[in-house]
Write a structure and sequence with these properties.
mainly beta; Jelly Rolls; six-stranded mixed β-sheet; five-stranded antiparallel β-sheet; about 50% strand
Length: about 270
């Protein structure tokens, strides 16, 4: 066990597009690819590095030089240290063990899939990579939804929802975190400001109750918010969710987030 390393796992049962670039979430995914990158962004909540990117296709892309390139994008861009895997027929697997993508709180990451040479086949894919936290014991839980926030009603969501899952009025969307841990460092990014005097308050939920981990996005100047030093504990067999409460009828927006799961090393 390495105290500062954890996994980011994803995949989709949707086929690649053989004629256009498409995007998906890095963590979880499961849903279809989209041509709108911002709809599938997820927010980094703590400093670290992403490395060791592995990809598996269910079928090969066709006949060489048919291929697909998968890229881990940083804040809507492919940068020098982006993790990139190109799988050329007849292969079905690939990896990037060279690049190391340094990330910081509020960075947004996405997965981009680009066809090469008009592939004959449209595979489905799963992937995984390693997150190396600057702080030992930290791992990340990433989420987001392009579904509109309600401007008057409290709503709920998974902590890692599949695209394009919308918010719900009841607490039906929950995940089991799978370990005793401390949750902290909730970071929120919405696509535009709530408006003067308005806000959205996001709270992590544990076993149908509000936790201490709360982040607020407020006013006419900010699109981000975080929970600061607030933290809470999650026990075995306790499930989690996220809820959002609008205040003073904010402008309807959509939201993207991430938080930290911390376990004492050793």
């Amino acid at each position: 066990e390495i105290a500062n390393e954890s996994l980011i796992l994803g995949g989709s049962n949707d086929q690649f597009d053989d004629g256009a670039t498409r995007y998906n979430q890095i963590m979880g995914a499961g849903g279809p690819y989209t041509g709108t990158e911002n709809d599938v962004r997820q927010v980094i909540p703590t400093a670290g590095t992403i490395k060791d990117f592995y990809v598996k296709l269910n079928i090969d892309p066709g006949t060489a030089p048919d291929a697909y390139t998968l890229t881990v994008r940083w804040n809507g861009a492919t940068v020098a240290q982006s993790l990139i895997v190109t799988i050329v027929a007849d292969a079905t697997t690939g990896n990037d063990l060279v690049h190391n993508l340094v990330v910081a709180p509020y960075d947004r990451i996405t997965l981009m899939v680009t066809p090469v040479s008009s592939p004959a086949e449209m595979p489905i894919a799963c992937w995984g990579m390693t997150f190396v936290a600057d702080v030992d014991g930290e791992s990340v839980v990433l989420g987001g939804s392009n579904g509109d926030l309600d401007d008057t009603a409290t709503e709920y969501h998974f902590v890692t929802p599949p695209y394009p899952q919308v918010w719900t009025a009841n607490e039906a969307f929950r995940h089991m975190l799978g370990q005793v841990c401390t949750i902290t460092k909730l970071h929120i990014k919405i696509n535009d400001v709530p408006g003067a005097g308005n806000s959205y308050t996001f709270t992590l939920r544990v076993a149908d109750a509000a936790s201490n981990v709360v982040a607020v996005v407020t006013g006419a100047a900010s699109t981000i918010g975080n929970s600061g030093a607030l933290e809470d504990t999650v026990a075995n067999d306790e499930y989690m969710g996220l809820h959002v409460v609008p205040d003073d009828t904010p402008t309807v927006r959509d939201a993207y987030w991430g938080f930290v799961s911390y376990r004492q090393p050793g």
